[in-house]
Structure formats: structure tokens, C-alpha cells
Amino acid sequence: MLLAMDLGGTWCRVACFERLGERPRAVRRLPTRPERGFFPLLEELVAASRALLEGMVPTGVGVAAPGPLDPKHGVLLRLPNLPQWPEALPLAELLAEQLGAPTRVDNDANLAALGEHRFGAGRGVDHLVYLTVSTGIGGGIISGGRLLHGVHGFAGEVGHQVILPDGPP
Q1: Among the options 106, 108, 126, 166, which is catalytic?
Q2: Which of 7, 35, 55, 111 is such that its CA lies 20 to 30 A from the CA of 127?
Q3: Are 3 and 99 in contact (CB under 8 A)?
Q4: Are 66 and 78 in contact (CB under 8 A)?
Q5: Distance (Å, rounded) from C-alpha 66 to C-alpha 107?
């Protein structure tokens, strides 16, 4: 059983899958309610995950999270759309400990780009750019058939950039 989580500024979703690329076996949707901080949400995500898994231990957990983040270590950095959450939050470590399975965390826009490349409108192409506009603005880049993270994991982060150095924020 595989477990997937999508953490958003307004809603979070947890889904379990029997196989990669198939439709989810079950899905739960939870309000993020960022004003209460991260740890109450973590408790709800873990409880929802355990309910979906019905006593099974997942083979792995994949988490789509808002950025910026460190995908190599699964750490959420300083989230502009969720300022109530702690900085340098070791999300992969926390979830792996709670759910007993290897956990990978990546930027939600990167994973959306990867999903489109493997299963959606981008199948069969070597290069694509995916842009998302939701609670935040982001992007993911596939180049040469591979997800591009960049040197510090921020490739495709188009939501916060300087256009005019002395212009409005």
C-alpha cells in the first residue's frame, strides 16, 4: 500500500493506493486551518492515514508540499503562505516516524509536473513546464525527461521573484 499526501494552504488530502499510477483506493480531505499551527494538522494527517490504511503499514509515503523546501532531506523551509508553521520543519522525518515507512517530500508543483509527465497531458514529451496558481504560485520543470530541482531545490519557483528591484513587493 502506498500513501500520498497533498498539503495546501486551504485543504490537505491523504490517499492510499495499491499501485503507482492507479486511482486511489480511498481519499480523505482535511481543512488546513493554518492559524492553529502545524502540529494539530500533523495529528489529523496521521489519524486519517491510519484510518485509510486499515492497520496496514505503507510501503512508502509521498508528500506534495508547498515550497520552498529541501527535497533531499524532506524539510519545509520558510513557507510564505503558511507563516504560522515552523521554519526548517523536518516533515519527512516526522511522518516516517509516525507512519513507520520511508517518506519523501517534494514541492507540490514539481510533483504535479512529474504527474503530468508520467500519467497526464505531458506523456511522451521530453520537456515541459507546469505552472500552478492556487493559494500560492509555483512551477515545475521537466527537462530531458527528468524533474529539474536546481542547485538548491528551487528550480521552477516562479511565485516570488524580483521584477523591478525598486518596484512594489
Answers
A1: 108
A2: 7
A3: yes
A4: no
A5: 6
Q: Is 108 a catalytic residue?
A: yes
Over residues 34-92, the pLDDT tens digits come to 999 999 999 999 999 999 999 999 999 999 999 889 999 999 998 888 889 999 999 99
* Predicted structure pTM score: 0.89
Count of beta carbons in the 10 Å neighbourhood of residue 146: 12
Amino acid, res. 104: R
Q: Per-residue confidence at 160, pLDDT binned at 50, 70, 90?
A: low
Please name which of 103, 107, 96, 105 lies closest in space to residue 130, comparing C-alpha atoms.
107
Contacts for 77-80: CB closer than 8 Å, 24+ residues apart: 80/136, 80/160
Rounded CA gap, 119 and 33, in Å?
31
